[in-house]
Design brief:
Knottins, disulfide bond, 3-stranded antiparallel beta sheet, signal, alpha+beta, 2 helices, 87 residues, 22% strand, 3 strands
């Protein structure tokens, strides 16, 4: 039995939404790098990251150099941000 046209449209919309999320998350990471911030994977955040506030708090507790954190990537992990050292 073939899916109805309505279900096909729903699947297409879901796929498009996933693509948009992937593009936006990669753009956020590149913008952060271009603005003088460095990102690194949190060393103490456990498991998948679904809450930016928890990630940010964990990052700030990890190091006084960290200014915050965000849940990034397709499989979301906690990334911490700090000011990059000048070259």
């Amino acid at each position: 039995m073939e899916p109805s046209p309505r279900k096909k449209n729903l699947y297409a919309a879901a796929a498009a939404a996933v693509v948009v999320v992937l593009i936006l998350s990669s753009e956020m990471a590149s913008v952060a790098a271009d603005t003088g911030f460095c990102k690194h994977l949190s060393g103490s955040f456990g498991g998948l990251c679904f809450n930016d506030d928890n990630c940010s708090l964990t990052c700030k507790n990890e190091s006084k150099d960290n200014i915050g954190g965000l849940c990034l990537d397709f499989i979301p992990h906690c990334f911490c941000f700090s000011h990059c050292s000048p070259p």
